[in-house]
Every structure is written in structure tokens, then in C-alpha cells.
Amino acid sequence: MIELRSDTFTLPTAAMREAMSFAAVGNDGYREDPTVLELEQRAADELGKAAACLTPSGIMANLAGLMTHLPRGGSLLVGDESDIYRHEHGGASICGGLVYHPVTTAPDGTLPLDALRAALAETAGEPRLICLENTQNRCGGKPLPLSYLDAVRELADEHGARVHVDGARLFNAAIATGVPAAELVRGADSAQFCLSKGLSAPIGSILAGDADFIAGARRVRTMLGGTMRQAGVIAAAGLVALDTMVDRLADDHRRARKLAEGLAGVPGLELDPAEVVTNIVLFDVTVGTAQDFIDAAARAGLAVLSPGGLKVRAVTHSGTTDADIAAAVAAAAVATADLVGAVR
Ligand SMILES: *Cc1c(COP(=O)(O)O)cnc(C)c1O
């Protein structure tokens, strides 16, 4: 089976497993795990922030960040297509008492400045946090331009709001735009990235910000049950991920474009390959439903998923080869031929 449902299917590399087995560890609840401390400092440096905190998942990193920024009743300005709004089970509301203000997400993954301005006016006088997603998953892995990110910072300053970047795939954005990750989050009060997606570590995310903010986030992390003990075994894989798995994301992007070009030639599938600039390929199915296609593709040896509607998503990652791309296109063609046959 060619696994393109998600880059969370990536497996730890041999170097990660080796580093994990020999990692120096201690009790991170007491801040005595040297490997966790090393990863947190390394990650903070990568993001140009003073401090960072390792969490078990991206969802927890986002939640701890949001709850640290805002008191109960505070307003979250989030994209209506964002992971925080769509896929995190209302945690900010349930656990943090925060109020979601969904802002329409543009096809390029940005929250238009006009829409943000309107949401800021509507919530004037309240503590506000603007959440951006980079890359924007549901818009097909779109990286946000630096000029836009800086403009949001300016807008936030005008209105006394804070900014959080959900950068689950921040390094994909950095590689695709050629802008270092630290630059991409220079206007953000906090940022989260996943070690467990394209970077291929088995577990973990990083939340970064200034020292006081991270001290607060550590308390929230403990409250959420996310403070771990000999977490150096996880952190060791994270360090290898940052050392060895960032630059190679360019291969994932190249293969995603190749896949998009191949799929664009398959009757019954619609997409614009030029839109694919990171590792996510979104396409429409014009024969049958998305689920019909997914089932037929699975029979042909290709695993993909639907983020909703007639759309299907394929994600390239470190387990994807050039041969897989050719085979995936062939499987997609078999699948759509199947569906056309079924329609007749
Ligand atoms: C995957 C993802 C998350 C959550 O990360 P987990 O480690 O799966 O909890 C958050 N935001 C975005 C944009 C994601 O793609």
C-alpha cells in the first residue's frame, strides 16, 4: 500500500532509533532531563524565541499556548478552515473557556486583513489572540508569505492583540518560501511545530515563545497531563529530526508537485499542479464521490483521505519514493477507470 493519507505515517529513522536508545535521560517534571533541555533550547533557537517547551502533540502545544495567552472568556480569532477550529475538538473552549471567532480562510491560507480587522473591531476591549496556520493544511499546504505575517503583526499591535502561529508544518513553509523558520515567526508571540509530521520523529511538538510565556505554558501543560518524565527518549529523536530531516522536505515538495502533475492527467480528477508548493496535494473527484474514489484507490494500492466534500488529500513524506509517485498516479488512474465503469 502506498501511504499518502498523512505525513504522520512517517517512521523514525535508524539514526533516531539509535539516538533514542542511548539518550541521556532524567526526570523532566523536575527539569532534569538533559536531552529534553537540549531539544527545547535548540528548538527555541531555530524559532528565534527565548524558550520552548516539548509537548506530546501539536494539539496540546496549541492548547497550552492558547490557554497561556488568554484568560477565560478571551477571544480566539481563528481561521474557519484551521486545525484549531476544525480538528481540535473545541479544546480551547472546553478546557480554557475561550470564545472562538471563526474568520473566513482565503484559498491561499491567509485570513484576509479586512476580515481580521472586522473581527478585532467586534471584540474590541477583550483579550484577543489571532491564530494563523503555516502551512495551511486544508488549503493544500499553502505557506503564508512573510509580508502577510508581518502585516498581521502590525494589525495585532494596533489592536493590542497577540499572535500565535500553528506551524505544525512550519519547516515545510520555510523550505518552500526560502525564509528561515525564525523569520516566519518573528511577528508571533508564540509558535508551535510538530516533530512528528514531515520531520518524522515518532512523538512530540514544540511550543516556543518568551521565557515568561513558556513558564506559564509549562504549568498549563502539567494541568493537561502533558508533563512527561524520562522524555529524553522522545527528545533524542526530535534532535535528530531537526538535524537531518529539515532540508530533505524539499524532496517531499518536489514529489508532491510530480504527483499533482500526474494526477492532473487522470480523467475524473481535477487540480492545478501549480498550486502545490509543499507536501500536500488536494484534488477534486468529478466521477462518483470522494469516498468512492478513496475506496477504489485503496483496492488499487493507494491510501488517501478526504478532508471533506468532493476533495481528496494526498501527502508526501519521508517514506515516499519517486517510484511511489509513479505507482500512485497509476493506481489513481485504475481507481477512476473503475468508477467510470461503475457509473456506466
Ligand atoms: C497535525 C496538526 C496539528 C496537531 O498536531 P498533533 O501532533 O496531531 O496533535 C495542529 N495543527 C495542524 C495545522 C496540523 O496539521
From TrEMBL:
- Example GO molecular function: L-allo-threonine aldolase activity
List, alphabetically, the GO terms of the cellular component aspect: cytosol
Which GO annotations describe the biological process of this protein? antibiotic biosynthetic process; glycine biosynthetic process; L-threonine catabolic process
Protein name per its UniProtKB record: Threonine aldolase
Protein family membership: Belongs to the threonine aldolase family.
- Post-translational modification N6-(pyridoxal phosphate)lysine, affected residues: K197
Q: Does the keyword Cell inner membrane apply?
A: no
The Aromatic amino acid beta-eliminating lyase/threonine aldolase domain is annotated at 3-284
Q: Which UniProt keywords apply?
A: Antibiotic biosynthesis, Lyase, Pyridoxal phosphate
Essential cofactor(s): pyridoxal 5'-phosphate
Which residue spans adopt a coiled-coil conformation according to this UniProt entry?
A: none
One protein family per Pfam = Beta_elim_lyase
